[in-house]
UniProtKB/TrEMBL annotation:
The lineage of its organism: Bacteria, Pseudomonadati, Pseudomonadota, Betaproteobacteria, Burkholderiales. It catalyses: 5-oxo-L-proline + ATP + 2 H2O = L-glutamate + ADP + phosphate + H(+). InterPro entries: Glyco_hydro/deAcase_b/a-brl, LamB/YcsF/PxpA-like. Its EC number is 3.5.2.9. It is an enzyme of class 3 (hydrolase). Belongs to the LamB/PxpA family. One of its GO terms (molecular function) is 5-oxoprolinase (ATP-hydrolyzing) activity. One of its GO terms (biological process) is carbohydrate metabolic process. Pfam families: LamB_YcsF (PF03746). This is 5-oxoprolinase subunit A. Forms a complex composed of PxpA, PxpB and PxpC. Keywords: ATP-binding, Hydrolase, Nucleotide-binding.
Length: 259
């Protein structure tokens, strides 16, 4: 049994530091690297990509709305032409930096508000899908497990990767608890590790109302910007290893690369 662990990295900006990319890259198997629209500056992004290349961590483009002030967490009703161009621009920029770092971009994971919007909004979802197909249709798309986005992306020929969140609360319908509500972000490493062990073993998580929700996921995200993120990721990986679960990139799993 294997599972991918991913984290949002490359999000520091100038003197403003976000997370500990070096430590997190020693734990995760996939890195969602910021592309400069919600966070990240070129030098910091390049350093993160080099760290990923050194450790054999798979790299994905963490594309977002152009929202540095709001860290990409504010909904934007962008015109289709603007959104498609923005996604192409971000992927292309990261591909260039990745090549310089000795690695390559293998997948796309939208960030923040864009991620949540395209999980259910078909118009913006199709814009993101069209952008990926235009620049590199071999890229996989990370999607919220159980969301309509999965079918839309597959219909366009994209490979999808269903994702669960280690440090986010779930509602009874399988959606994430909004960050504005209590219980949206979880902070106890041991509790999170136990919760994700249940996910891998049984394919379920406990929702915020106590109900059991079915989540079929190939990858688990630990947010790099959460307090204690590295400790949480380490606790999760240690628990999975103790349970006999291998941690490797979903791209390696697809290609049959040994863990």
């Amino acid at each position: 049994m294997d599972i991918d662990l991913n984290s949002d990295l490359g999000e520091s900006f100038g003197a403003w530091r976000m997370g500990d990319d070096t430590a997190m890259l020693d734990v995760v198997s996939s890195a969602n690297v910021a592309c400069g629209f919600h966070a990240g500056d070129p030098a910091g992004i390049l350093a993160t990509l080099r760290g990923a290349a050194e450790r054999g961590v798979t790299v994905g483009a963490h594309v977002a709305y152009p929202d540095l002030a709001g860290f990409g967490r504010r909904h934007m009703d962008m015109a289709s032409s603007d959104l498609r161009a923005a996604v192409i621009y971000q992927i292309g920029a990261l591909q260039g930096l990745a090549a310089a770092a000795g690695t390559r971009v293998r997948y796309v994971k939208p960030h923040g508000a864009l991620y949540n919007v395209i999980a259910h909004d078909e118009r913006q979802a199709q814009d993101v899908i069209a952008a990926i197909c235009a620049i590199d249709p071999s890229l996989a798309l990370v999607v919220l497990a159980g969301s309509p986005l999965t079918a839309w992306a597959r219909a366009a020929g994209l490979r999808t990767v269903a994702e669960a969140f280690a440090d986010r609360g779930y509602r009874a319908d399988g959606s994430l608890v909004p960050r504005s509500q209590p219980g949206a972000v979880l902070h106890d490493p041991a509790a999170v590790a136990t919760r994700m062990a249940q996910l891998v073993r049984e394919g379920t998580v406990t929702a915020n109302d106590g109900s059991t929700v079915r989540i079929d996921a190939e990858s688990i995200c630990v947010h790099g910007d959460s307090p204690g993120a590295v400790a949480m990721a380490r606790a999760l990986r240690e628990r999975l290893t103790a349970d006999g679960v291998g941690v490797r990139s979903f791209m390696d799993a697809e290609e049959g690369v040994a863990a």
